[in-house]
Structures
1.
Amino acid sequence: MKVELQNLTKIFPSRNKKAGGEVVAVNDFTFTIPDGKLIGLLGPSGCGKSTTLYMISGLQKPSGGKIFFGDDDVTELAAEDRGVGLVFQNYALYPHMTVKQNILFPLQNLKGADKLPKDVMLERAYEAAKLVQIDELMDRKPSELSGGQQQRVAIARALVKMPKVLLLDEPLSNLDARLRLQTREEIRRIQKETGITTIFVTHDQEEAMSISDLIVVMKLGVVQQIGKPQDVYDNPTNLFVAKFLGTPPVNVFEGSVKGGKLYIGDAAVLETPGVDDQDVFVGIRPEGFILDNNGPLTCKLNSVEVMGRDVSVVSTHSASLNPVVRSIIDADNQVAAGATVSYSLKPHKVFLFGKADESRIYFGVKSDG
Amino acid sequence: MVESKHSWKAWIYLAPAIVLLLIFTVWPIINTLRMAFLEGYSTMGAVGGATYEFGIGNFKQVLEYKDFLTCLGNTMLLCVLTVPISTILALLIAVCLNAIKPLQRLLQTIFFLPYVTNSIAIGMVFAAMFNMVGSAFGGENELIITAGIINNVLGFFGMDPVNWINAGSSYGANMVVMVVYIVWNALPFKILILLGGLQSINKQYYDAAKVDGTSRRRVFTRITVPLLSPMLAYVVITDFIGGFKEYSSIVGIFGEDMGPTGDPRRLNTMVGFIYDALANHQGRASAAALILFGIIFVVTLINLYVSKKKTHY
Amino acid sequence: MSELKNKTMQEKDLKKVSAMSKIGKIVVMVLLYAFLITMAVIVIFPFYFMLISSVKTLEEYQRSIPTLWPEVIRLSNYVEAFNTGNLGRLFVNTMIVGIVSTLLSLVITVLSAFAFARLEFKGKNALFAALLGTMMIPGELFTITNYATVNDFGWMNTYTVLIVPFLVSIFYIYLLRQNFMQIPNELYLAAKVDGTSDIKYLWKVMIPLALPTLISITILKMMGAWNSYVWPRLVANEEAYQLITNGLRNAFTDVDGNANIPVQMAAVAIVSFPLFLVFIFLRKYIMKGVSRSGIKG
């Protein structure tokens, strides 16, 4: 099922009644989610991603704009009539019911023509349970399950009624690191197998990058960028997106463009044809540095961290806006011991952002860069 | 914690409480057991030098006593009627209160109002509401002027007036009045506890149910009630214990005669029975008190057992 | 073709469904409010009846069709009630008993709760468990012996008999102990290191932190004195020591309709009025105290 959001807006009255005013949680969000894809809504807390999810589920009413499932306008439709499956951050499994009863619950709600015979319901419950590999645990209570197992039960409960859209709210945030890795693969697999359009919310960029077909980066209610994870990573539209995606994070410097050249400090580090003279923020991905003794960018060397395949070089630079400049280079390169380290830069890993609005300034990259 | 050489200090802090407890709590427990098993014991007699045989005569006597059976019957009937009615009503009101936004605070306050009242004083108000004005004897020159406000309301719906509490009233009518008053009295506590319980249920369960298209009825029976069951068990247990000790609400309506004019003691309860025997028949009163304790103990155990079976999660 | 048809039908369906669920919601809301407001009216009606009846003339009260608002407001009923019931004397008695027993009870409760929460002594847990165990026993069981005891002490018809036997409430000790236990022990140890005495620590740290509980106990204890009926009736029936509830019941005992009910209702209103004041101004503490501790009235 294709999901279309048109100018979706949500305004909350301010919590502080005396002060008045309002909070715009989601501002004019327009996007069409293609059928059968896995979409990650990504952003720091308070960016409106959960609100967006809840509006799609029908639990919250938009202040403006429309939501379409396929060609049907569901904006005015209550949650129970939308046919969505929702997995809550804390799973919201009914504590007094067994796993089986939890999974059966949505099916038992069906009425009239949709009503299913008992054996069909049971069959479908077991099918859903098998899909998430918890069919051995059907008679347990949620309190007897691990966090990962509870998560699977929640997914099974959402899937059992064959929803048009599956929504996941921070599905991995309550799991430990090892389970998180495992479960995110699992979500990817389940989504692939069922082909249900799935939207999940997360504040963890790695999580979103690793499994999504498309990611939507949000900040303070406004969509910053939508695209395939790699595209967004390679081509952030503004400083926020550049900073939000990637570990280790992008290195940000104060810089300026003079006569088609980018200066960091006094050194001209890169040719930037077609950019007017101005002060800029410079973002350089950690993998954008090339060790080069004659390179233009010289930093004070702090330490070298060997991480197997790669080497992470930690240094400082007076124009850096991050506490340290961190580069990742191939372990084959020997970092010469010394007080400084010099780099040349890969142009396509260097982004320029305007000082005023922090939006991207593009420059012509020579194809051999 | 602090080293134990100061432990005498703790006993100084506890001294006033312990002295009072020894006199007014520990001694009565021992003494009640003693008096209950001394046949026909009375303090006056004991002071006068009479001696008493050890035995279970008091218990036998109490159980054979017709008055006691009346009291036991009244108490049980009141419990069996008021506990379910007030619990169901309180549950409904709490659930409805929890579902609304405007006026919630105001209504919550109104429903809590009866909690802070004096059960004797408001009992008199209820008595006045159920009362006939004038005389119920209906002698030649004593006319019933009005049938009382409750009967006026009944009349408004085309029903005949009922003699609720006056001389010549029926036992059933008396019971109705008591049930209404006791339920009215029990509601605020229960609503408060149940509403608190409802508000502490994670809202996500309801969101989850909503997304799954659960009907209101099913949400209520399959989610709200099970999740509220510990609180429900709690109010039911406390209400049963309170119900077995019912006394002052009856005094509030009927006065210390514990019944309508012409038929005193008709609505007497277990506690009333104990108070009646208190001054002169301590043996009998003690036996009755122990029986009351036994009943409360057993009912509480049953309640705990049932609720443990129904509320485990 | 058929697909298209299907779609338009579905669209219609969706509109219908959303309209239906909206109407359903409105109907449910109307029913909810109707039920709640009806119940609220029933709950509040006795108070209303008490107030309007208390200012009616006897003639107006006895009319066959009752008036919902008094034609003449007759405040002299209150004066009559006050004099008939000797309510002034009863009020003074009740206040004396209430204030003295509340103060003493607070002192005893605080000291005991402190000992149980912060001090270490042999048999502490056993003693505490035994005390909690006695809470299961109905109070009537104690009354039988206590009645004889206070008689032996020669306390009949004194203030003492109304105050002393109920000074220790295990329940309040329990409540306050729980509250004290939530205060981190490090605070106590720090105070010890600084050489603060126990009493000073109790007064400066623990009592301020447990103030809400103490206020709840104070209110409930005062209300207890105001509403107590059974024990005072047994041991202090002389008018000089009678408490307000007993006085009220004794002065207006006539169950049958011959009494001057407006005056009686005025007396009830006078007795209820302080409770309403407490309710209005201290509702927060009462509700908190009740819901946290589950004290049944």
2.
Amino acid sequence: MSETLTAGGTRKLQIWRGDLTSGELVDYELETEPGMVVLDAVLEVQRSQAPDLAVRWNCKAAKCGSCSAEINGKPRLMCKTRLDHLPAEEPITVEPMRAFPLIRDLVTDVSWNYRVNEQITPFTPRENLREGIDVKDGDFLIDQADTDRMSEFRKCIECFMCQDVCHILRDHRMHNRYYGPRFMIRMASLDMHPLDGVDRLDQVADEGGIGLCNITKCCTEVCPENIHITDNAIIPMKERVVDQRHDPFLKILGRTPNKGRVKPPARSSTPEL
Amino acid sequence: MRRDRWWVQPVLIVTALTLFGIYTIVRVIVNKHYAITTDGTHMQSPFFSPDLPGIFSFKTSLPWAFLVLWSPLGLRTTCYYYRKSYYRSFFLAPPSCAVAGVARRKYTGETRFPLVLNNLHRIFFYFAAIVVGFLWYDAIRGFFYHGTFGIGVGNAIMVLNVLALSAFTFGCNSWRHIIGGKLNCFSCSDTARARHGAWQKVSILNGRHMEWAWISMFTVWGTDVYIWLASSGVFTDPHHIF
């Protein structure tokens, strides 16, 4: 995409206005300052031209994950997208995330994600990891090598842009069949935890629907924390499912992944959008 | 709605992969001029490696290279990077990020035949790794002219090709998983620690898997074109025998 440096000046914004029943892109024009981000511009429109404009934001530091939107058609954090990084000759479009139900204007209802999260059994310490370590006593010794791999996933700020860009949710609306990239990384971080005692592979494959993911890597492309969602979480989890279900050699050898871990309790329900 | 030129990448990928596919099929059916044998060397085209008629005395008039090519081509077809490429570019599922793809009656991803077979990527890896071993053998064999060490342009091309193919093959996501990624604990035994070290090294290659996929595809093609032209007499492979 061409990037045009500007030192402020007049910019045109097209902001989605409406609710679930109807809506349209509305033109706004405003004077901008050098260094402004899209959220600055949207809040300026809200202050000076459209006080009823609904927009969700909080930290303005790319850490709370609240101001996710689709800027020029791509999921981005409004607070992290500078105006001078967008083509100056075109209006800037700002739309709500499409994968979730619209509440109003730029605000969507992302509560489906929290319902999915509830389906995942949280960290549960396993017993008898090795001699000298009693997990039950809180002796949570983990080697740096193991924390390094998981710490990448802890950077997630739950902006849900990976969920928004995922075509399984966005286009095919299969919210009841696929948990989405954000929860693939959560399940990966739990599965790769050396002290965890739960085997979630059936859940990843069945309710989680990892087989639906065709690894087109859009989730990785939009992640504002640069988490390698596909390469470091989804593909490793797909490979673990292959270990469990598809690898003929492992079947012959009788090898099963996550040996010694217990199955999680049955899930209460399928999270519907 | 995206207004940038998101369609450029799918167009380039469709063009490149289609041309490579057609070239491969035509080349294997042509089935001749696949080795430079000037001055007693033997530089085998990567499309025809291992040299089944030469090494294993396998005799047939049919395009025998298909008997081997299924494994490296299968590796590429089921490769996680190539899957991304063809799902986007050929299947338009989706053509680019946040761009709606072709409307389908029912999307099943990789849960149904035939795409579920992509889960057998590691099987193709095992066989393709053996083929890479033969390519190293071919590259080293090419340095000997009637048993005397020599060096030439063809040798350099073959070494570059096998280096690129090794970087692609051993940066594979399945290999990264098998070598250590599948472990839940990297520190629980000496073996696990050794595998963690190997996993880190494979991860470095894997971080550039896309680049190695394209580089190695072009080096295979370029090596074959060079050998085809040189062995058919268009030019002589420049070399020096020590």
